[in-house]
Write a structure and sequence with these properties.
- Helices cover 82% and strands 0% of the residues.
- By secondary structure, the protein is mostly helical.
- Helix 2 packs parallel to helix 9, helix 12 crosses helix 15 and helix 18 crosses helix 19.
- The protein is globular.
């Protein structure tokens, strides 16, 4: 274990960042990535509408969604690589084995991209997407969709390099590089829309920056940071076709978790659209679901840097540091989700009315269910991300498909009776029953010495923060009265000031240490 610890310090540099610094850098990079995602999906829309009609914008949103779905083609290979790189930390020749595995997995990635690329091009020649998706009158739809999906497919091998960055304490670097690519891509999209005005040019603008990022990461940055990856330095082991297929098979349990999470984000929209006749209710669902998905996404982004550190401790068998970091990380993610839910609950109605200009009525029970549910499952999201980094493919394969089945059954029963509220209840119930009740409980029992006390502490923390934040917001709202956008911002600012004042004692290192000492491990 001492050898593994010394390698960890050497990778980051003998005078390199500490664990806390690595976590802060990772959280900062992930926060910027979340903000860039919001910019792409919200702020660029008005710019596009200055150039395009609503029909062309709808076509672009479809193309963008199709490109985002290409992540499914990874099929768990990224997480398989992360776990193998972590396992090599206990080997005498960590760098050599990592380089050899990297070389073999790169061949697997290239083969997957080649096969899927040929199938994608062939399928689009046989079945024109514009006809199947209802965009026959939209020029360049087929070519733009092909460029977007094929381009995003070509970026998949970069997942292998980013996995090595994550394991070697450089996970913030790869996220920052991707953030730069996303930022330049957004400027390029707006410029392409203004200059050329067609979908094909905007798709090329978006995907070209992603391909440049992937090429830079693979060809230049990774070999420079990790010299053992240079082709002349790799001890090449002849990898058979059977070995490559075996890696894909071993990666599939990890892909079940990613696929289920992706399905739980997108399937509810399709189910509500198909089972609910009232189009206003469908719009209510889609808009309210945005904020719940954002809260869920922020929890996952907060968990990623922590999971990389936990994966290191798990790989080298440092159980004491693992327990301490897991317990504190779980409380941190839960507290952050609770703060956001406690702040959103009292002000979401006013924001919703301002956002929609009053054209879509506010559904209080729906919003409350989704926001409270998002806060309640924060510990299970943390456990899920840790499971990805601790080689628990078998556990993921048992629990995540079961969660999807439970969600589908509950949706088919509840949505026809309760509408969008039924979909919200199905999501929350499947999360609590399976992801929390099975997956998270198993992880907590295997990791901590006092699992029941820890769960009780999480529940108490969640209840205290959500109820406190909600109550403060209701008091501020009742005193400030109704008003427009300016009054809304004043209320939010007051809430932040009051909550900041209450939380200010945590700025003291001694108080933080005292609070951390009472967290059950």
């Amino acid at each position: 274990m001492n050898n593994a610890l010394s390698r960890w310090k050497t990778t980051a540099g003998s005078e390199g960042p500490t664990r806390l610094q690595r976590l802060v850098h990772g959280w900062s990079a992930n926060l910027v990535q979340v903000l860039l995602g919001l910019t792409q999906q919200l702020l660029l829309i008005p710019a596009f509408l200055h150039v395009w009609t609503a029909d062309i914008l709808a076509a672009w949103l479809t193309i963008y969604a199709a490109g985002s779905l290409m992540i499914v083609a990874d099929a768990g290979l990224h997480l398989r690589a992360v776990n193998r790189f972590l396992a090599f930390k206990n080997c005498a020749d960590c760098d050599g084995r990592s380089a050899s595995f990297y070389d073999g997995m790169l061949r697997v990635y290239l083969s997957v991209v080649l096969v899927l690329g040929v199938l994608l091009v062939g399928a689009m020649q046989l079945w024109r997407p514009s006809e199947m998706l209802g965009f026959r009158a939209t020029a360049d739809f087929d070519s733009a969709l092909l460029v977007m999906t094929l381009g995003m497919l070509l970026t998949l091998p970069a997942n292998l390099a980013s996995g090595l960055y994550r394991v070697r304490g450089r996970y913030s670097r790869t996220v920052w590089l991707q953030n730069i690519a996303l930022l330049f891509g957004q400027f390029a999209q707006v410029a392409a829309a203004i200059v050329f005005g067609n979908l094909f040019a905007v798709a090329v603008a978006f995907v070209s920056t992603q391909i440049i990022f992937a090429a830079f990461l693979m060809a230049l940055d990774a070999p420079r940071l990790f010299p053992f990856l240079r082709r002349d330095g790799i001890h090449r082991t002849r990898r058979s076709f059977r070995w490559g297929v075996g890696q894909i098979g071993l990666a599939l349990p990890f892909s079940t978790g990613s696929f289920t999470e992706l399905a739980l984000v997108n399937l509810p929209v399709l189910l509500v659209s198909s089972l609910v006749v009232d189009r206003i209710a469908v719009a209510q669902w889609g808009l309210t679901r945005v904020i719940a998905s954002l809260l869920r996404g922020i929890c996952q982004q907060m968990s990623m840097p922590l999971a990389a550190e936990l994966g290191h401790d798990y790989a080298i068998g440092d159980k004491e540091r693992l327990r301490r970091l897991y317990a504190r990380g779980s409380v941190l993610v839960t507290a952050m989700a609770s703060i956001m839910a406690g702040g959103l609950l009292p002000f979401w109605e006013n924001f919703f009315k301002l956002w929609t200009h009053g054209t879509i009525p506010y559904d209080g029970p729906l919003a409350t269910t989704l926001l409270l549910g998002s806060a309640a499952i924060a510990p299970s999201l943390f456990a899920l991300v840790y499971a990805y980094h601790s080689d628990r493919g078998a556990l993921l394969a048992r629990t995540k498909p079961l969660q999807l089945v439970v969600f589908l059954v509950l949706s088919l029963v509840l949505i026809p009776r309760l509408g969008p509220l039924g979909a919200a209840l199905a999501i929350v119930a499947s999360d609590l029953a399976i992801q929390f009740g099975l997956l998270a409980i198993v992880i907590i029992r295997q990791t901590l010495q006092h699992p029941l006390r820890h769960v009780a502490f999480l529940v108490a923390t969640m209840f205290t923060i959500v109820s406190g934040g909600w109550g403060i917001g209701l008091v501020i709202e009742s005193q400030a009265g109704a008003g427009g956008l300016a009054n809304f911002f004043v209320q939010c600012a007051l809430w932040l000031v009051v909550v900041g004042a209450i939380a200010s004692p945590l700025a003291s290192r001694k108080i933080r240490a005292s609070f951390a000492s009472v967290i059950p491990e």
